[in-house]
Design goal:
It contains 6 helices and no strands. It is mainly α. α3 packs antiparallel against α6. It is globular and about 60 Å long.
Protein backbone atom coordinates (compact mmCIF):
# COMPACT_ATOMS: atom_id res chain seq x y z
CA UNK A 1 0.00 0.00 0.00
CA UNK A 2 1.13 3.51 -0.71
CA UNK A 3 1.35 4.46 2.96
CA UNK A 4 3.70 1.62 3.81
CA UNK A 5 6.50 4.17 3.71
CA UNK A 6 5.72 4.49 7.41
CA UNK A 7 7.22 1.05 8.01
CA UNK A 8 9.80 1.36 10.70
CA UNK A 9 8.00 4.42 12.05
CA UNK A 10 4.96 4.84 14.23
CA UNK A 11 2.18 2.32 13.66
CA UNK A 12 -0.16 4.79 15.28
CA UNK A 13 0.74 7.41 12.67
CA UNK A 14 0.09 4.92 9.89
CA UNK A 15 -3.29 3.98 11.27
CA UNK A 16 -4.29 7.61 11.74
CA UNK A 17 -3.33 8.56 8.18
CA UNK A 18 -5.18 5.61 6.65
CA UNK A 19 -8.23 6.16 8.82
CA UNK A 20 -8.35 9.84 7.86
CA UNK A 21 -8.24 9.06 4.13
CA UNK A 22 -11.08 6.58 4.55
CA UNK A 23 -12.99 9.17 6.57
CA UNK A 24 -12.49 11.71 3.78
CA UNK A 25 -14.02 9.31 1.27
CA UNK A 26 -17.02 8.59 3.46
CA UNK A 27 -17.62 12.29 4.10
CA UNK A 28 -17.42 12.77 0.34
CA UNK A 29 -20.13 10.18 -0.11
CA UNK A 30 -22.35 12.15 2.26
CA UNK A 31 -21.61 15.37 0.38
CA UNK A 32 -22.25 13.69 -2.96
CA UNK A 33 -25.56 12.18 -1.83
CA UNK A 34 -26.79 15.55 -0.63
CA UNK A 35 -25.66 17.32 -3.78
CA UNK A 36 -26.84 14.84 -6.40
CA UNK A 37 -30.30 14.66 -4.87
CA UNK A 38 -30.76 18.36 -5.45
CA UNK A 39 -30.34 17.68 -9.17
CA UNK A 40 -32.04 14.32 -9.66
CA UNK A 41 -33.99 13.66 -6.46
CA UNK A 42 -36.08 16.77 -6.05
CA UNK A 43 -34.31 18.08 -2.94
CA UNK A 44 -34.36 21.85 -2.48
CA UNK A 45 -30.71 22.97 -2.86
CA UNK A 46 -31.14 25.64 -0.20
CA UNK A 47 -32.15 23.00 2.34
CA UNK A 48 -28.75 21.28 2.13
CA UNK A 49 -26.55 24.25 1.24
CA UNK A 50 -24.92 24.58 4.66
CA UNK A 51 -24.41 20.84 5.11
CA UNK A 52 -22.86 20.38 1.66
CA UNK A 53 -20.30 23.11 2.26
CA UNK A 54 -19.72 22.11 5.89
CA UNK A 55 -18.92 18.55 4.83
CA UNK A 56 -16.57 19.75 2.13
CA UNK A 57 -14.73 21.94 4.62
CA UNK A 58 -14.22 18.89 6.85
CA UNK A 59 -12.50 17.13 3.96
CA UNK A 60 -10.36 20.17 3.21
CA UNK A 61 -9.24 20.37 6.83
CA UNK A 62 -8.40 16.66 6.84
CA UNK A 63 -6.32 17.09 3.70
CA UNK A 64 -4.33 19.92 5.25
CA UNK A 65 -3.80 17.92 8.43
CA UNK A 66 -2.45 14.90 6.57
CA UNK A 67 -0.24 17.07 4.39
CA UNK A 68 1.25 18.67 7.50
CA UNK A 69 1.88 15.27 9.08
CA UNK A 70 3.63 14.07 5.92
CA UNK A 71 5.84 17.16 5.82
CA UNK A 72 6.77 16.72 9.48
CA UNK A 73 7.44 13.03 8.92
CA UNK A 74 9.73 13.81 5.97
CA UNK A 75 11.58 16.47 7.95
CA UNK A 76 12.16 14.14 10.89
CA UNK A 77 13.26 11.11 8.91
CA UNK A 78 15.25 13.06 6.32
CA UNK A 79 17.24 10.89 3.97
CA UNK A 80 15.64 7.75 5.37
CA UNK A 81 12.24 8.78 4.02
CA UNK A 82 10.97 7.15 0.84
CA UNK A 83 10.20 10.40 -0.96
CA UNK A 84 8.43 8.86 -4.00
CA UNK A 85 5.93 7.18 -1.72
CA UNK A 86 5.43 10.36 0.24
CA UNK A 87 4.61 12.13 -3.02
CA UNK A 88 2.10 9.42 -3.90
CA UNK A 89 0.45 9.84 -0.52
CA UNK A 90 0.17 13.56 -1.19
CA UNK A 91 -1.49 12.72 -4.50
CA UNK A 92 -3.96 10.30 -2.90
CA UNK A 93 -5.24 12.88 -0.44
CA UNK A 94 -5.59 15.41 -3.25
CA UNK A 95 -7.72 12.96 -5.22
CA UNK A 96 -9.88 12.41 -2.16
CA UNK A 97 -10.28 16.16 -1.69
CA UNK A 98 -11.24 16.75 -5.32
CA UNK A 99 -14.20 14.39 -5.07
CA UNK A 100 -15.83 16.78 -2.64
CA UNK A 101 -15.17 19.68 -4.98
CA UNK A 102 -17.02 17.97 -7.82
CA UNK A 103 -19.88 17.15 -5.49
CA UNK A 104 -20.14 20.88 -4.78
CA UNK A 105 -20.13 21.53 -8.53
CA UNK A 106 -23.16 19.26 -8.81
CA UNK A 107 -24.90 21.25 -6.08
CA UNK A 108 -24.05 24.40 -8.03
CA UNK A 109 -26.07 23.04 -10.96
CA UNK A 110 -29.14 22.78 -8.75
CA UNK A 111 -28.50 26.18 -7.23
CA UNK A 112 -28.52 27.50 -10.78
CA UNK A 113 -31.95 26.03 -11.41
CA UNK A 114 -31.17 22.57 -12.82
CA UNK A 115 -33.72 19.94 -11.76
CA UNK A 116 -33.88 16.67 -13.68
CA UNK A 117 -36.10 14.85 -11.20
CA UNK A 118 -39.27 15.19 -13.27
CA UNK A 119 -37.76 14.77 -16.72
CA UNK A 120 -38.32 11.84 -19.04
CA UNK A 121 -34.77 10.57 -18.53
CA UNK A 122 -34.86 10.84 -14.73
CA UNK A 123 -34.33 7.10 -14.27
CA UNK A 124 -31.03 7.34 -16.11
CA UNK A 125 -29.67 9.92 -13.71
CA UNK A 126 -31.04 8.15 -10.65
CA UNK A 127 -29.18 5.00 -11.71
CA UNK A 128 -25.96 6.97 -12.12
CA UNK A 129 -26.54 8.58 -8.73
CA UNK A 130 -26.89 5.21 -7.02
CA UNK A 131 -23.93 3.66 -8.82
CA UNK A 132 -21.62 6.56 -8.04
CA UNK A 133 -22.64 6.72 -4.39
CA UNK A 134 -22.02 2.99 -3.97
CA UNK A 135 -18.67 3.24 -5.74
CA UNK A 136 -17.47 5.89 -3.27
CA UNK A 137 -18.41 3.65 -0.35
CA UNK A 138 -16.83 0.61 -1.99
CA UNK A 139 -13.64 2.54 -2.72
CA UNK A 140 -13.42 3.51 0.95
CA UNK A 141 -13.82 -0.14 1.94
CA UNK A 142 -11.22 -1.32 -0.58
CA UNK A 143 -8.73 1.28 0.60
CA UNK A 144 -9.33 0.54 4.26
CA UNK A 145 -8.99 -3.23 3.82
CA UNK A 146 -6.22 -3.05 1.20
CA UNK A 147 -8.32 -5.33 -0.96
CA UNK A 148 -6.10 -5.46 -4.04
CA UNK A 149 -8.23 -8.02 -5.88
CA UNK A 150 -11.31 -5.82 -5.53
CA UNK A 151 -9.22 -2.76 -6.47
CA UNK A 152 -8.20 -4.35 -9.77
CA UNK A 153 -11.80 -5.28 -10.55
CA UNK A 154 -13.39 -1.97 -9.64
CA UNK A 155 -10.75 0.08 -11.47
CA UNK A 156 -11.40 -1.85 -14.67
CA UNK A 157 -15.14 -1.41 -14.23
CA UNK A 158 -14.89 2.30 -13.54
CA UNK A 159 -12.59 2.71 -16.53
CA UNK A 160 -15.52 1.64 -18.70
CA UNK A 161 -17.77 4.11 -16.90
CA UNK A 162 -15.47 7.01 -17.76
CA UNK A 163 -15.70 6.08 -21.43
CA UNK A 164 -19.48 6.05 -21.13
CA UNK A 165 -19.41 9.51 -19.55
CA UNK A 166 -17.37 10.78 -22.50
CA UNK A 167 -20.00 9.33 -24.81
CA UNK A 168 -22.68 11.06 -22.74
CA UNK A 169 -20.99 14.43 -23.27
CA UNK A 170 -20.77 13.74 -27.02
CA UNK A 171 -24.45 12.79 -27.01
CA UNK A 172 -25.42 16.06 -25.37
CA UNK A 173 -23.30 18.08 -27.79
CA UNK A 174 -25.28 16.53 -30.65
CA UNK A 175 -28.63 16.99 -28.91
CA UNK A 176 -31.42 18.78 -30.75
CA UNK A 177 -33.04 19.84 -27.49
CA UNK A 178 -32.61 23.12 -25.66
CA UNK A 179 -29.11 24.37 -24.91
CA UNK A 180 -29.96 24.50 -21.19
CA UNK A 181 -30.96 20.84 -21.10
CA UNK A 182 -27.91 19.74 -23.07
CA UNK A 183 -25.41 21.82 -21.10
CA UNK A 184 -26.74 20.78 -17.69
CA UNK A 185 -26.59 17.10 -18.61
CA UNK A 186 -23.16 17.39 -20.20
CA UNK A 187 -21.82 19.08 -17.08
CA UNK A 188 -23.36 16.44 -14.84
CA UNK A 189 -21.74 13.70 -16.92
CA UNK A 190 -18.44 15.54 -16.70
CA UNK A 191 -18.61 15.90 -12.92
CA UNK A 192 -19.58 12.25 -12.46
CA UNK A 193 -16.68 11.24 -14.68
CA UNK A 194 -14.20 13.27 -12.63
CA UNK A 195 -15.48 11.81 -9.36
CA UNK A 196 -15.05 8.35 -10.85
CA UNK A 197 -11.55 9.14 -12.13
CA UNK A 198 -10.42 10.42 -8.73
CA UNK A 199 -11.77 7.29 -7.08
CA UNK A 200 -9.78 5.24 -9.58
CA UNK A 201 -6.64 7.14 -8.63
CA UNK A 202 -7.23 6.49 -4.93
CA UNK A 203 -7.75 2.75 -5.15
CA UNK A 204 -5.23 2.19 -7.96
CA UNK A 205 -2.60 3.46 -5.49
CA UNK A 206 -2.92 0.00 -3.94
CA UNK A 207 -1.88 -1.77 -7.13
CA UNK A 208 -0.05 0.68 -9.42
CA UNK A 209 3.67 1.54 -9.18
CA UNK A 210 4.63 5.07 -8.23
CA UNK A 211 5.66 6.17 -11.73
CA UNK A 212 2.25 5.21 -13.17
CA UNK A 213 0.21 7.42 -10.86
CA UNK A 214 -2.71 9.16 -12.60
CA UNK A 215 -2.50 6.63 -15.43
CA UNK A 216 -6.28 6.47 -15.67
CA UNK A 217 -6.62 10.24 -16.00
CA UNK A 218 -5.65 9.87 -19.64
CA UNK A 219 -7.95 8.68 -22.38
CA UNK A 220 -7.30 5.08 -23.37
CA UNK A 221 -5.87 6.20 -26.71
CA UNK A 222 -3.33 8.42 -24.94
CA UNK A 223 -2.06 5.86 -22.44
CA UNK A 224 1.33 4.22 -22.73
Amino acid sequence: MVLEFFKGGSDQTLEQIEATIVEMLLINRHTFDLAINTVVGGTDPESVDKEVHKSDRRVNKAERRIRKELVVHTSVRGANTDLPRVLVAMSVIKDAERIGDYAKNIWDLAAGGVDLSGDDDADRWLALRDRTSKSIAESARIYQERDTDAAHGLVQEMDEWTSAFDACVDEMMASQGSARDAVSRALLCRYLKRITAHLMNVISSLVMPVHRRDYYDEKKSDRE
